[in-house]
Amino acid sequence: MLAVKDLKVDIGGSEILRGVSLDVGAGELVCLVGRNGAGKSTTFRTIMGQHPARSGSIKLAGREIRGLRPFEIARLGIGFAPEESEVFGDLTVAENVSLPIWTRQTERAAAEREALAYRVFPNLQLFWQGEALNVGQAISLRQVAFLSLYSFLFITAMVALAIALFQEREVG
After folding, report:
1. CB atoms < 10 A from the CB of 22, how many?
2. Where are the alpha helices (DSSP H) in the chain?
3. What percentage of the chain exceeds 90 in pLDDT?
4. Is there a contact between 148 and 140 (Cβ–Cβ < 8 Å)?
5. pTM
6. Which domain holds residue 152?
7. How do beta strands 63-64 and 55-60 pair?
8. In this structure, are 58 and 110 located in the same domain?
9. Predicted confidence (pLDDT) per residue in 26-83, tens digit
């Protein structure tokens, strides 16, 4: 599904990624683990087209995507939820969850994608009328917003979210 080979990235004149390679097959949960500053986020951002790669290959289902712009990569079905993504503070939980559903057409109906979002994070339904969220709930909400797009490949720095999505796929 996703094949990254010998990815090299420089930022600000410093070599950040030095030959990163990874493969993600259909139905797999792959975790990129490392200390702060090891290049995990840079790897994700490079896959999504936010950082240019000096060399290497990024293929999605056999198609080279290195050099595409982020919106083009997202349209191909890769969802990316960085740690610092934000929610819309003026919107309710329900509005934050439903908003991205209408931005991308998929084979699943909007109602089905919204139901999936609440199955993965059931506690968010307790707050959907607009009550204040704590930090952890806000993090869950911003991740659910990306989930509701129902991308076929989802990249996140939040390991708990990745595990929850994987478990939902296995059960539901």
Report:
1. 13
2. 40-47, 70-75, 93-98, 110-120, 135-147, 159-171
3. 29
4. no
5. 0.70
6. 93-171
7. antiparallel
8. no
9. 877 777 888 888 898 899 999 999 999 999 999 999 999 999 999 898 888 787 766 6
With respect to residue 163, please indicate whether it lies within any of the assigned structural domains. yes
Is 49 a member of any domain? yes
Q: Let me know whether 114 and 164 are in one domain.
A: yes
Establish how many alpha carbons lie within 13 A of residue 150's alpha carbon, considering only the half-sphere containing its beta carbon: 20
Query: How many folded domains does the chain comprise?
Result: 2
Radius of gyration of the chain (CA): 17
Pick from 154, 2, 165: nearest CA to 20: 2
CATH code for the domain in which residue 7 is found? 3.40.50.300
From 14-23, 46-55, 72-81, 156-165, the region with the lowest mean pLDDT: 156-165
